[in-house]
Amino acid sequence: DLNRKSTIPFKFGEGHKEYIRKCRYAMFNILEGAVRSGKTVDNVYAFAHELKTTPDRIHLATGSTMGNAKLNIGDANGFGLEWIFRNQCHWGKYKDMEALKIRGPSTNFKEKIVIFAGASFSDSYKKIRGNSYGMWIATEINLHHDNTIKEAFNRQLAAKRRKIFWDMNPEHPKAAIYVNYLDVYDRKAKEGTLKGGYNYAHFTIYDNVNISQERLEEIVSQYDENSIWYIRDILGKRSIAEGLVYAKFAAMAAKENNPMKITVADAQAMIRSGEIQKIYIGVDFGGNGSGHSFVATAPTVGYEKLVGLMSELHTEELDPEDLNKLFMEFVEKVTDLFGFITAVYCDSAEQVLIRGLRTAAAQRNRGDLKIANARKDRINDRIFCFTGLVAQNRFQYTELCGTLEDALSMAVWKPDTVELERLDDGTSDIDTLDGFEYSYERDMKKYINVGK
I want to staple 275 with a disulfide (CB 3.0 to 4.6 A). Which of 39, 143, 270, 370 is the partner? Predict the structure, then answer.
């Protein structure tokens, strides 16, 4: 009962109560969100409730370090396990490992052992070997090394009541914890193929009823609302925090009311009014693990603004015939929605593929379509032109530019280099960025001169 009388002043908002109730029936219980949103306390409370009746004797609690695990799960500012089971538990050792041993009325006088361990290093997993665990509670799971995550799962295979409780602050949208775990669980849960039940919730600082309005305003006031840190720490949205190439774009794109985003109808109205008179498509060819990208953009009259109309990324292996088909389908979509295409600029390194696109266009009675080589100006010149447009509120894009939005939001500078160089190691979508830049680079000087 969430409302039971206790000397510990638990106070949960409705969303938090709902999450805790669902923990009873789900194997995977995951809380993500902003700082000070009450994530860890929810999981500790739900974990403690299950400890009272679970048939398993040994359980696992992990953090980035053992000290972090003890502080956030054991103590938790007076809301942790040692307080919930006060007078029924004591700290000690179990097989040379730090453990909280619990036995008393709450557990029907059956001993429950919670082993505490750090998890951030590649060899941290060795510490938790040798035991079978019933439940596993982890704080800041995104800071755990994957070796430890896999080992903890393996150690739970014999559990009679297997449960996982994870909490985390938002991470890079392509972080391994999402790609390998959370996104997989979410997809399988929606498909109905994840066994055991998936209980996920997202909270922000505004959902924490334990923070007074005065303290809330004080915390929020310390942040720049246009910074990526505000998006991440206060709104609790997944984002990259350091080394962003397009930091202002990423911060604005993550806002609820993104000022850069327009509807297709808005763009069509700009064409009807004569504000848009040219439309260009940039094409970057894939190969060796990269993808094929198509990006359609348009300058407004006088190069006052750059407008993203539509973008696509195809990461699958494509033979030239399939590539030609997808390209022509993109051309037709742009034409159907926006009426015309002025020119197409392609990565000049792939002359055979460019000839294939021209042949495909001629076969579709689009021989008039100008398909030419991209100029491929210096990458940093292209970057600085675009960041200038964003800084001056001169870039807009439609809802059909999802791949472009993702690519711009996640591009980072290569670390540990003196020269500014965009990181191109497969962790972000450089292919869409290249296609995008090919579409506007011929007009960079015009855009820059207007902004002076």
Answer: 270
